[in-house]
Amino acid sequence: MATTTDAISPSPRIKQHKQYTLVIPLDLHHDRVLLGYKLRGFGQGKFNGFGGKIEPNETVIAAAIRELHEESGLLCKESDMIRRGVLLLETVADEVSPILEIHVFTVDRWDGTEIVTDEMKPAWFSLSKSLTPTAEPPTSNVDSSSSTTATTSTALDLTADTDTGHPAIPYHRMWEESRIWLPLLLRSVSNPDASALPTPSVTVENAGGKYFIHHVQFVGGTDSDVTADGEYSVWHGMGNRRLDFMDELPGDWELRHSYVRNPMPLQKS
Ligand SMILES: Nc1nc2c([nH]c(=O)n2[C@H]2C[C@H](O)[C@@H](COP(=O)(O)OP(=O)(O)OP(=O)(O)O)O2)c(=O)[nH]1
């Protein structure tokens, strides 16, 4: 196991975890990635994978399959789900807000076709154009004024269905921590023989690890990425963070208690 990080402090005390799933469909045959444009609720106006809360008594994989289907129309089997890692997102705004423990999967086969739901509007992006976080945002198929009107508008053009017609992922319109791990994940997918390559802002020592854990402490701030005015969000402003790659994810208990409480030795990036 190896660590790449900005310095991060141990949480002063154990916080509750709130579990979510996040699924990213990959159409490798057509070099494209499916994301959803969030039409309502938490994260409205941002692009993200498909996912949501894990219900009581539901397994992580069952929740991932259910949320993917509810939000995109795509239906996967358990054997189609490829586990990629875990996001541990923590706000330092207070001591009680739970850590968001988000289990990340990719899928590269499914039944059905993507549909617009009341929560998400799916859009395809080029995989090969999205391998760096600095990839240019699309200008042609995303209307930046669409955060509240996308349900009925033509803000997203879903018809650019050619091998070369998809834009790069608009990382500037995703949750900001996605800019760190998602390009690395896509790089490892697009070239599985090579280790996930370092980005300018992240030093990766053991990129060959199969899974990642991205632990971020958000310091809060005005999020102007999506709305023109911007609004204060405790889930904005990446502070300390660490990105680990490992061949085995910690077990559930360790993930919930030991990992966050006792971070591994730190390395400055
Ligand atoms: N990459 C990333 N994903 C995030 C962040 N915060 C966050 O909630 N997510 C993901 C986790 C979930 O996949 C999704 C939020 O799920 P949700 O609130 O829509 O959950 P849900 O569908 O169960 O909600 P609902 O139907 O009950 O409203 O966004 C973040 O900072 N970064």
Automatic annotation (TrEMBL):
Domain of life, source organism: Eukaryota
Record has Cell membrane as a keyword: no
EC number(s) per entry: 3.6.1.56
Region described as Disordered: spans on this chain: 132-161
Subcellular location as annotated: Nucleus
Residue stretches spanning the membrane: none
Keywords: Hydrolase, Magnesium, Metal-binding, Nucleus
Pfam families, per database record: NUDIX
An example molecular function term from Gene Ontology annotations: dATP diphosphatase activity
Subunit organization: Monomer.
Its job: Oxidized purine nucleoside triphosphate hydrolase which is a prominent sanitizer of the oxidized nucleotide pool. Catalyzes the hydrolysis of 2-oxo-dATP (2-hydroxy-dATP) into 2-oxo-dAMP. Also has a significant hydrolase activity toward 2-oxo-ATP, 8-oxo-dGTP and 8-oxo-dATP. Through the hydrolysis of oxidized purine nucleoside triphosphates, prevents their incorporation into DNA and the subsequent transversions A:T to C:G and G:C to T:A. Also catalyzes the hydrolysis of methylated purine nucleoside triphosphate preventing their integration into DNA.
Keyword Hydrolase: yes
Recorded family membership: Belongs to the Nudix hydrolase family.
Gene Ontology biological process: DNA protection
Chemical reaction(s) catalysed: 8-oxo-dGTP + H2O = 8-oxo-dGMP + diphosphate + H(+); 2-oxo-dATP + H2O = 2-oxo-dAMP + diphosphate + H(+); O(6)-methyl-dGTP + H2O = O(6)-methyl-dGMP + diphosphate + H(+); 2-oxo-ATP + H2O = 2-oxo-AMP + diphosphate + H(+)
Cofactor(s) listed: Mg(2+)
CDD domains hit by this protein: NUDIX_MTH1_Nudt1
Listed Polar residues bias regions: 132-142
Gene Ontology CC: cytoplasm; nucleus
Protein's name according to its UniProt entry: Oxidized purine nucleoside triphosphate hydrolase
Organism for this UniProt entry: Orbilia brochopaga
